[in-house]
Amino acid sequence: MADFVGLPAMTFLDATLKTAADGAPVAHIGTQSVRLDGYQFAQGAGPSPGPVTLGVRPERVLVGQAAGLEALEARRTGLEPHGADTLVLLDLDGQALTARVNPEIAGALDDRVHVGFDIEGVSLFDPDDGARI
């Protein structure tokens, strides 16, 4: 998996991939789910149901209103100021998630935060061998 590239590191979440009635891939993370419309599967792969590891870089985690209508709900556990950016540390159904946001946005967040993902920054991996799906 791509955990060695970039700082802060990519977040990895245990998820289960399922297919919606319309054929769209859906990742179930704990008790919540998020559609992955537009996800580009690796060549030869497709939305095969089962366990996956969902990887997302902190700058591709959307928070607050930017998360959209199908947002997940996370609990804010901390803030780490880094000059022009602030890392928002989150708990998403018992799993750690990090978002990189503007400090003004970070300061206005409540303890409960709506989050989503920029699909361009999401990668799915096979949890057994780490290969990108």
Question: SSE layout and pairings?
Answer:
Layout: E1 11-19, E2 25-29, E3 32-35, E4 50-56, E5 61-63, E6 72-82, E7 85-92, E8 95-101, H1 103-107, E9 112-117, E10 122-125
Antiparallel strand pairs: 1-2, 1-4, 2-3, 4-10, 5-9, 6-7, 6-9, 7-8
Keywords: ATP-binding, Nucleotide-binding
Domain Transport-associated OB type: 54-125
GO molecular function, one term: transmembrane transporter activity
Quick structural overview:
This protein has 133 residues and is mainly β. Helices cover 4% and strands 48% of the residues.
Question: What are its keywords?
Answer:
five-stranded antiparallel sheet, OB fold (Dihydrolipoamide Acetyltransferase, E2P), mainly beta, 1 helix, 133 residues
Describe the structure.
The chain has one helix at 103-107; strands at residues 11-19, 25-29, 32-35, 50-56, 61-63, 72-82, 85-92, 95-101, 112-117, 122-125. The strands form two sheets. The chain has a five-stranded antiparallel β-sheet, with no helix packed on it. It is mainly beta. It is built from one helix and ten strands; from the N terminus they run ββββββββαββ. It is globular, with a radius of gyration of 15 Å. 23% of the residues are buried. The longest helix has 5 residues, at 103-107. Helix content is 4%, strand content 48%. The chain has one domain (11-125): OB fold (Dihydrolipoamide Acetyltransferase, E2P). β6 (72-82) and β7 (85-92) form a beta hairpin. It comes from Roseisalinus antarcticus. Keywords: ATP-binding, Nucleotide-binding. This is Glycerol-3-phosphate transporter ATP-binding subunit.
